[in-house]
Amino acid sequence: MCLQHRALHPSEPLPQPNLITQALQSKRALEATCSSEFESMKKQFKLELNEKDKNTETGSLLWKVSDNGEPLSSITEGNENVSMQSIAKGVVTKVGTVDPVKDFRAMIAQNNVQEFGKVCSEMKMQINELLKQSFGKMINSKVIDCIRALREECCISNKPLIFNTFLEELKATLPIIHKGDFWREIQNADITLIANSECNSSSVTKDAALKFLQEQKDESDDNVIESPEEDENDLLNMM
Hints:
Layout: H1 2-8, H2 18-24, H3 28-33, H4 35-44, H5 72-76, H6 84-89, H7 100-110, H8 116-133, H9 137-156, H10 160-173, H11 182-188, H12 206-214, H13 219-223, H14 232-238
């Protein structure tokens, strides 16, 4: 009906369907009979406009205390930028594969000095896992970023032995896992041992660190096994 009216009278408004209009309108007699009940319901169930607070919500609006028992009001006091999103992130407990550098630095920031070695061990394990699973330049660049982050944090925390031992072991392991070419990427990134010129507690000199970076172990030396020459008569006897 509406389509027909629009086709025949395009400039006129559409007619209102009588059945729908009647169903939406209440009966006068019913309104008059139930008027007192309607007024009672209005008083019992008042409609009020609830305006949303435009200010940033903080954890103190939902929780009274934090995980360690400290009142959240003291945590958020003076810091208006603390939002629900930052609180919901929680504490980083593991160096993951998505953004290992970010996880590593977050764990360093939130843990004490005694846990530094444990956090570095997690990063070293993640580096080894990424190397074993890497098949392209993208993963290799992530591994380089991880090694660089580990080196920087060891320098800052005055723990050069942790990184130097790891880099020496990594250099020896690369040919075994058929990743000898990765050492060239480490050379291009100029990542070498932490020298005593960078960290006083290091026992490695600057020249030794430079020599360590330039040296490269030939992968073929470890993987090529010389097979004894077989005599022609032995081959004939095997046939």
